[in-house]
Amino acid sequence: MANSRRVDVHFHLIPKFYADEVYSAGSGPAIGRYPDWSPELALEVMDRFGIATALTSLAQPGVQFCAPDKAKALARRCNDYAAELNVRWPKRFGAFGTVSMWNVDDAVEEIGHALDTLKFQGVSLFASYDGKFLGDPRFDPVMEALNARDGVVFVHPGAHPTNRLIDLPWPAFMMEYLFDTTRAVVNLIFGGALERYPRVQFILPHAGGLVPYFSWRLSVSPMIDKRLKQMTQDEVFALLGRFWFDNALSPGAQTWGCLEQVADPGRIVFGTDWPFANVNVTAEAVKTYEALAAIPPAQREAIDRGNALRLFPGLT
Predict the structure, then answer these.
(1) CATH class of 6-315
(2) In this structure, are residues 135 and 187 in contact, taking their beta carbons and an 8 Å threshold?
């Protein structure tokens, strides 16, 4: 590989006990069944694609598919499992913690366990829970806990309840996930949470969904509707520049042409979305990314590793 030192911030964890729980509840991921997963398979993929360290995050549908008490316990079990991987392979794995958002007190408690006790790199939150998006006031205690710790949040999209009302047969990952991320970003910006909790760092997967593409339209929206928080275009773009963006499933020139106009170049990081992006897809994504002439060598090195090390200096 051109780079054997990559830090992959978008790398999923699917413990067998977790998949069994999901299936027994009659739930599952957007692709129907989980792909094969084991630490050994993960390490093989990492070695093949030049990934020195992978930061794991729990797969869909998180822990919200079960009752609150069970979700809390399952989140703790998944976090302890991720911690075991980190101990066994300390240079190869890091982790974003899982929290149950049924009860914000439970979420705050698990944030403390994941960040203070287990020393994870951050936590993984879904863009929305039960129809409410990140930035909603009901999640303020969670944001306060993260802000107090200079926390990093990996924002992963999921299925919104309204998706069931859309009369299309296509799986949610194809496009609905991108909309979910986009809605969370708009809510964080125009709801004021991004400014209320300035020490929280948000990583947006898949190059931020539709955010780079429609950023100009977003920046002039306050001119159109005076009910919106009145911000100038420069203010909107400055807030967009505070997000981190990974390039998982978004490596092509089509996306890069939008992303590079919006993202701070020091806040673009590498991601694969393995194993939901299977080995064949990951190979195609890496080939596309490495062939992208618009990215100069110094910036590619920063995307592959340097930017992530600034966000997670402990990985050095």
Answers:
(1) alpha beta
(2) yes
